[in-house]
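User: Run a structure prediction on this.
Assistant: Running it now.
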Amino acid sequence: MTQKTIFITGIGNGIGRALAVFYTQLGWRVAGLDPDDEALTELREGLDGELLLIPGDAGREADVIDTADRLSEWLDGAPLTCLVNNAGIADPYAGPMEDLSLADFQSWIDASLTAAFLCSRSCLPFLRRGEGGSIVNISSTRAVMSEPDCFGYAAAKGGLDALTHAMAVSLGPDIRVNAIRPGWIETRNWQKEGAREKVEHRAQDKAQHPAGRVGRPADIADTVHWLIGAGFVTGQAINVDGGMTVKMIYED
């Protein structure tokens, strides 16, 4: 049976890093793209398995075209099981709108939405080689709810939700496309070694979540894996937020 393969953008830190660990432990071939050379080196040295880790920006067309060429050679005719469009700018805060430059606004769009388009377009031939290819877009609960001064991030993630259902309709039935909307997922302890932090959450942080805790990257990995196997699920955006977005919070 052909070994399964996953390609993850933004693989160097946070959720992408956790996905790399999760799938190498399952024995999958893991490929990824990230601009952080130091984080990629750590992953190469720390993970056992067949890896292709490429330095580059998922929001730059030239980098994605080069990555697709390298991925094609590495796959050597084998199919790609799943593409995870995880790349994005982690910090959502832009400051007041009147001070926000177009270039800075565009940086959020390119890092997440443009990147998902470019990488999906490039990976389609590899996904179509097999049966049941899957794309999972990592969106955010901020696609449907907002905090102040998160204009570019919210717009990018809202666009990613829309791109998800547009792709699901157009690429099916051969390829299923879904989105995951993470809520508060603690990733400070899933960074490269020099940026890693030990984190303890307050009681009020946990109490925001009906599930009783802040989210972990493993919660996203579990959901990605479920979506890969959920053959009758496509065009969906699934909140993975411990119930935070359905809880009414009153000011004291």
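Strands lie at 5-9, 29-34, 51-55, 82-85, 133-138, 175-182, 237-240.
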